[in-house]
Give the backbone structure.
Amino acid sequence: MKIAEADREFLVAEAVALSEQLPPGAGRTAYEDIAWAADRGEIPEDMAGQVGELLALSLETGRVRAEHGPAGVRALLSTLAG
């Protein structure tokens, strides 16, 4: 899954924010891995399910809008559509 350069910062920020809320372990590491991959512009297909969960959580709770405004919402929706 390719991540557009303009969308990367938002996906990275959301993945890092979620990982910081989790205790050390596999769950936390998975979101750190998403952040790392998104920063480089491509997320492996085997992470797609977790990326979808992250995007849904960020959008449904309103966190992305509160933290990043409409640009963040558009970026995450673009990632979902991509």
Observations:
- The chain has a mean pLDDT of 94.
- Residues 5-81 form one domain.
- The CA atoms of residues 53 and 59 lie 10 Å apart.
